[in-house]
Amino acid sequence: MTCAACAQRIERVLRKAPEIREAFVDLAQDRAVIAPGEGVTADAALKAALTAISDAGYAGFARGGSLAERHAGREKRAAALKAESDMLRLRAIVALVIVVPFMVAMGIEVFQTEHAHVIPPAWQLGLALVAQVFCAWPFYGRAWASVRSGGTNMDVLVVLGTATAFIMSLRHVLDGSAHHGAPLYFEGSVAVIAFVLIGKMIERAAKREAGAALGALADMLPDEVLVRDAAGERRLARDLVLPGMQVVARPGAILPVDGLVLEGHAFLDESSLTGESMPVARGVGDKVQAGSGVSGGTLVVEVQAVQDETRLARLARLIEDAGLNEAPAISLADRISHVFVPAVLVLAVLTATGWLLAGVGAERALIIATSVLVVACPCALGLATPIALVAGASAAARRGLILADHAALEAGAGITNVAFDKTGTLTEGRPTLVAIRVTEGTEKAALGLAARLAAGSDHPIDTAIVAAARARGIFQEGIEAFEAVSGGGLSGLVEGRRLALGSRAFIDPAGVADQALSGLVARLDPGQNALPASYLAVDGVPRAVLVVGDPLRATSVEAITDLRALGIGTIMLSGDRQEVVEPVAATLGIDDARGGLKPEDKLAVLNGIIERGGKLAFVGDGLNDGPALRAAQVGIAMGTGTEVAKGAASVVLGRPDPRLVADFIRIARRTRNGIRENLVLAFVFNGIAIPLAMAGMLSPAVAGAAMALSSVSVALNAVRLSRTAR
Q1: β-pair type (541-549, 432-438)
Q2: What is the pLDDT of residues 561-615, one digit of tens each?
Q3: In the chain, where are the structural domains located?
Q4: Hey, is 485 helix, strand or coil?
Q5: Which of 225, 390, 506, 673 has its Cα between 20 and 30 A from that of 470?
Q6: How big is the CA angle at 434 (ends 432 and 437), to the nearest 5 degrees?
């Protein structure tokens, strides 16, 4: 499939099949989901679906529903996309090579005083024939499939326009008039083919990358798992792990299963799964999820769910199925083609019939009808959308915006609301020391002591403390009698003093320093008391509290301000706790902020907004954002995010700057305006020229020259768009 019209056409033919009760088509992943009719087996419905797809001019294959089968299906699709992309690239390169001499010749002919062709007519015919037969062949195939299914689309526009220009020029070459100055329009047909192919090539390359990124979800788990049984520890292929087995997960490992902790204590990074900004403590009796990163300890987990039954697998299905909730947006050019192409053909037939009834000869009536077809030749319409989209995509790339789908520019122009994830999107997405409060001494001295202890731990909070000390140039190594208490904290001796760093209960188990500790917390800024904190005690006396959080990106406030200036509403949807989310939203000026959301919850919120008529973009970076990125009209992923998030999105921010979201919407709006301007130029021209041609006042030669002029005006307008949409 190449466009939303393809997706809707396939959906339509599938629903017409008597064996199929319902069908949904996902353009982004080139897949369809069908529901068999009453009393129809799944195999019979699948066979009917493949037949219907083939009859519509497309190729399809069956794919299972398990995680392994989905992964195999993606690999098969990737291979097909690569083969198609390679051929598309070859066709585009050939078309570009052919169009260059035509453009050079056209520039030379502008300054000639006598009408003579720079490129001999026979050579022009040969070059244009290669473009028509080889380069434009896919357009003819898809146009025929569209007509067979009872509709017209962009491909029909391209075929009608380029074929009309080619046939008119061919007539002049064959009757010899081209050698005596009769105009040729080969360059117009070749230019349309080249521009459309280049746009398709760029779009298909981005689509391949997106599909590969979605496949990364199946690759994030280890192939081998460390299991423990009566014989000891051994490695086992992940596919062979069964519920009831015991899995050992050491620091640095990724949990391969869902299960229950039997032994040990560790901190799990669940940020990509849940949106929680800080690692969470997990110990005996706690449930854990596949895909979580382990640090600060070793866990022994009893396996409860494997493979397709894990929450990670369910999330993978949710990400894929989110694309089925919304019908793909049909481009403006495709919508126009449904009316314009049949109307032009009807006008040409009516013109020929009218002149025949008026008593002119058949040859004269045919020439006048041909003039109508030539002057209405939709080369300008065929160029209007792709050339504007290529210009918009070029402007976006210069701003650091990577488009997986050019249709995102058309959808982005209508956005009314932008929903943001918090962690890693509006914030840095990494633990950072954000505050120190001391009872005595200096913050610098307290940080230096805390960092000595923290250097012995791999917990992200301790790592953040060490990083802060290094950044300030005060980090020193050296600790004696170091001890790490799982789930509690760290202790050791420095220059004869007993240091303790950890939870409130760890440094003051008897609660004798409760008042002093409460005083430290009271001196924190609003919102900081909800963040993870480590308390430092020296010789049993509380000395400091160190707060680690996920700071806002430097440009986040400006990003929200820019969106408000564009009239865009903003929402924050986060998996982090509500008490952490609210202060961040208040700082940014976001009124609607919701925390504690699972991926399903985010999806429900977005679908509710869309059902109420909102046009929504979602910005995220994590695996847990995948369903929302797929369901929104425009999914925007941070370039620093997970591969799955980038694969689910239609736009990727090339640098971690949320201000690019507003830049994208500005470029999208200018691109939409450029498309509309191009279409207006084409229609104004047709509105004037078609009646003149029907009245017999324009010869085919004059009509062809006017048609070429309209295409040039569209191209020049796209050049202007490329320069201004920055």
Answers
A1: antiparallel
A2: 999 999 999 999 988 888 888 888 988 999 799 988 888 888 889 988 888 888 9
A3: 4-62, 224-255+258-305, 402-427+553-667, 432-549
A4: strand
A5: 506
A6: 135
- Which class is 224-255+258-305 in CATH? mainly beta
**Calpha distance 257→290 (Å, rounded):** 4
Q: What is the mean pLDDT of residues 133-138?
A: 89
Q: Does domain 4-62 have CATH number 3.30.70.100?
A: yes
Residue for token digits 């032009």? 344
Where does residue 266 fall: left (phi above 0), alpha (psi -120 to 50 degrees), or beta otherwise?
beta
Residues in the chain, overall count:
726
* pLDDT confidence of residue 329: 47
Query: Is the CB of residue 203 less than 8 Å from the CB of residue 405?
Result: yes
- Neighbour order of strands in the sheet with 432-438: 432-438, 541-549, 533-538, 497-502, 489-494, 480-485
The string of pLDDT tens digits covering residues 365-408 is 766 776 676 666 555 555 566 667 777 777 887 788 888 777 78
pTM confidence score: 0.65
Q: What amino acid occupies position 419?
A: A
CA atoms within 13 A on the CB side of 552: 20
Active site residues: 421
Query: Is CATH 3.40.50.1000 what the domain over 402-427+553-667 is classified as, yes or no?
Result: yes
Is 305:258 a contact under the CB 8 Å cutoff? yes
**Cα gap 582→559, rounded to integer Å:** 18
Side-chain half-sphere CA neighbours of 288 within 13 A: 36
Mean pLDDT of the chain: 79
